[in-house]
Amino acid sequence: MPSSSLLMLLIPTLGLLLLLGSVAAAGGAFDGNFYKNFEIVWGDGRARVLNHGKVLTLSLDQDSGSSIRSKNEYLFGRFDMQIKLVPGNSAGTVTSFYLSSLGSNHDEVDFEFLGNLSGDPYTLHTNIFTNGGGGREQQFQLWFDPTADFHTYSIIWTPNSIILSVDETPIREFRNLEKGGVPYANNQPMRLYASLWNAEYWATRGGEVRTNWTYAPFTASYRKFEVDACVWSSGKSSCKSNSTSFGSTSSDGDGAGDFLYTEESDFFVQESIKWVHTHYMIYNYCTDLKKYPQGIPYECFVAQSRNNGVVSS
């Protein structure tokens, strides 16, 4: 087994490469065009597509925030977005990148960046909803300044698991545990969303710090989204339903990336997650006994077993 110091060097560069294979080599990854692949949901001019569709800015002022969503729906795939967050005093704001289906029993996978007072670190808030049920919050403080430059945030959604990563470093996994009675997101197609909105009642220090509107408008920037996924259209998927290492079609109709999962890739993913949780996690619903006085959810026991080197499913 590699030493822990060597693992820390290998995890960010090898973990997802082993997990997914080379999507670029398969031709499925592309630098997306926001004009072509997204539509504005709300914002009244506060969502702006620039540089011939290559850059998106979302803005928030005291009257409104802004949001976009993908024109296509997807059922499984990899979704990457480069984001540069609101700089300076961003308290009360939430910048998001997420997948979601529609309806009260919706599925959803969230990256939400909670604004801060100038000089304080951003909080990365993640959550996963399945069949309308959420409450699976995990929060992290990032190991870099997310306002100084663009960084890549990824959702890898397969029939077996959902993995969230930051700059190719896996930070969270939610496995398909339907056999254990835990609902999983494998039936409802989801769209890709991005938004910037006011959540001062809860976002910064639990709502203690409200938005200072003298700093408005607040602006976040997005670029280089890449989608290698199964497009859902007319009740059918573009991917072969009987394939476990399945091909995928990107949102512009090109490409065929394969999603690979091996024991070697799983090892690096789990080591990465353990490292991030040890050094950068600030909240985990799996350890919140006030929230779950009768005992933590089943998926938490499975995750703990995997982190301790016990294979469980």
Automatic annotation (TrEMBL):
<dbReference type="GO" id="GO:0016762">
    <property type="term" value="F:xyloglucan:xyloglucosyl transferase activity"/>
</dbReference>
<keyword id="KW-0964">Secreted</keyword>
<keyword id="KW-0134">Cell wall</keyword>
<keyword id="KW-0961">Cell wall biogenesis/degradation</keyword>
<dbReference type="GO" id="GO:0042546">
    <property type="term" value="P:cell wall biogenesis"/>
</dbReference>
<keyword id="KW-1015">Disulfide bond</keyword>
<dbReference type="InterPro" id="IPR016455">
    <property type="entry name" value="XTH"/>
</dbReference>
<dbReference type="GO" id="GO:0048046">
    <property type="term" value="C:apoplast"/>
</dbReference>
<comment type="function">
    <text>Catalyzes xyloglucan endohydrolysis (XEH) and/or endotransglycosylation (XET). Cleaves and religates xyloglucan polymers, an essential constituent of the primary cell wall, and thereby participates in cell wall construction of growing tissues.</text>
</comment>
<dbReference type="GO" id="GO:0009835">
    <property type="term" value="P:fruit ripening"/>
</dbReference>
<keyword id="KW-0378">Hydrolase</keyword>
<keyword id="KW-0808">Transferase</keyword>
<keyword id="KW-0325">Glycoprotein</keyword>
<comment type="similarity">
    <text>Belongs to the glycosyl hydrolase 16 family.</text>
</comment>
<dbReference type="InterPro" id="IPR013320">
    <property type="entry name" value="ConA-like_dom_sf"/>
</dbReference>
<dbReference type="GO" id="GO:0004553">
    <property type="term" value="F:hydrolase activity, hydrolyzing O-glycosyl compounds"/>
</dbReference>
<dbReference type="GO" id="GO:0010411">
    <property type="term" value="P:xyloglucan metabolic process"/>
</dbReference>
<feature type="glycosylation site" description="N-linked (GlcNAc...) asparagine">
    <location>
        <position position="116"/>
    </location>
</feature>
<keyword id="KW-0292">Fruit ripening</keyword>
<dbReference type="InterPro" id="IPR010713">
    <property type="entry name" value="XET_C"/>
</dbReference>
<dbReference type="GO" id="GO:0071555">
    <property type="term" value="P:cell wall organization"/>
</dbReference>
<dbReference type="InterPro" id="IPR008264">
    <property type="entry name" value="Beta_glucanase"/>
</dbReference>
<protein>
    <recommendedName>
        <fullName>Xyloglucan endotransglucosylase/hydrolase</fullName>
        <ecNumber>2.4.1.207</ecNumber>
    </recommendedName>
</protein>
<keyword id="KW-0328">Glycosyltransferase</keyword>
<keyword id="KW-0732">Signal</keyword>
<dbReference type="InterPro" id="IPR008263">
    <property type="entry name" value="GH16_AS"/>
</dbReference>
<dbReference type="InterPro" id="IPR044791">
    <property type="entry name" value="Beta-glucanase/XTH"/>
</dbReference>
<dbReference type="InterPro" id="IPR000757">
    <property type="entry name" value="Beta-glucanase-like"/>
</dbReference>
<dbReference type="Pfam" id="PF00722">
    <property type="entry name" value="Glyco_hydro_16"/>
</dbReference>
<feature type="signal peptide">
    <location>
        <begin position="1"/>
        <end position="25"/>
    </location>
</feature>
<dbReference type="Pfam" id="PF06955">
    <property type="entry name" value="XET_C"/>
</dbReference>
<feature type="domain" description="GH16">
    <location>
        <begin position="1"/>
        <end position="222"/>
    </location>
</feature>
<keyword id="KW-0326">Glycosidase</keyword>
<feature type="active site" description="Nucleophile">
    <location>
        <position position="108"/>
    </location>
</feature>
<keyword id="KW-0052">Apoplast</keyword>
<feature type="active site" description="Proton donor">
    <location>
        <position position="112"/>
    </location>
</feature>
